[in-house]
């Protein structure tokens, strides 16, 4: 399983909604680019599902679950959305991935090019290069 992470819990509701939209779009593109690999976008699948069911989750519980999923992952992709450095869960995930020596990629994201990318429904050249390197890294490990 490829674990995908992005910031989601920090910020105002409008910012969280924008992060969710951008993250889901990027996740869908990654899924089509790496079709033979199972992907799990932790915040969009676990956190949003809990929110839809009106189940509260503390920051520590969310981090604990993130680490459990991360421990099962064969690779991690961090979506470099603006504000990711403000999300404590993302910081914890990066530290854990480094300590567990899980192959990791930071997928670049350009806010100013998002609308254009959305219209084209395609990954940018930089994003494709990162995913190609990440895919070859996974095959070697």
Structure notes:
- The structure is a single chain.
- The mean pLDDT is 89.
- The protein has one domain (2-126): 3-Layer(aba) Sandwich (Rossmann fold), CATH 3.40.50.10400.
- It has six helices and four strands, in the order βαβααβαβαα.
- The protein has helices at 13-33, 42-52, 59-72, 88-100, 114-120, 125-140; strands at residues 2-5, 39-41, 75-79, 104-107.
- α4 links the parallel β3 (75-79) and β4.
- α3 (59-72) runs parallel beside α4.
- The protein starts with a strand and ends with a helix.
- It is of the alpha/beta class and 141 residues long.
- The relative contact order is 0.19.
- The protein has a four-stranded parallel β-sheet with strand order 2-1-3-4, sandwiched between helices.
- The chain is globular.
**Overall structural domain count:** 1
Low-confidence stretches: none
Widest sheet: strand order?
2-1-3-4
> Which range best describes the helical content: under 10%, 10-25%, 25-40%, 40-55%, 55-70% or over 70%?
55-70%
Round the Cα radius of gyration to an integer and report it.
Answer: 14 Å
Any idea of the CATH topology?
A: Rossmann fold
Count of β-strands? 4
Strand content is 5-15%
Distance between the termini: 14 Å
Total helical segments: 6
User: Helices and strands: which structural class?
Assistant: alpha/beta
CATH superfamily: Hypothetical protein PA1492
Give me the oligomer status: single chain
Helix and strand run: EHEHHEHEHH
Q: Do you know the CATH architecture? A: 3-Layer(aba) Sandwich
CATH top level class name: Alpha Beta
Sheet bearing the most strands, described? Answer: 4 strands, parallel
């Amino acid at each position: 399983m490829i674990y995908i992470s992005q910031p989601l819990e920090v910020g105002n509701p409008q910012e969280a909604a924008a992060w969710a939209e951008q993250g889901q779009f990027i996740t869908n593109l990654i899924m089509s680019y790496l079709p033979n690999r199972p992907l799990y976008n932790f915040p969009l699948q676990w956190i949003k599902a809990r929110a839809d069911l009106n189940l509260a989750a503390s920051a520590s519980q969310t981090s604990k679950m993130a680490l459990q999923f991360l421990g099962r992952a064969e690779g991690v992709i961090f979506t470099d959305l603006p504000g990711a450095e403000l999300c404590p869960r993302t910081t914890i995930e990066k530290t854990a991935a480094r300590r567990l020596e899980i192959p990791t990629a930071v997928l670049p994201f350009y806010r100013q090019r998002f609308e254009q990318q959305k219209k084209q429904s395609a990954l940018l050249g930089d994003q494709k290069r990162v995913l190609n390197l990440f895919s070859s890294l996974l095959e070697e490990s």
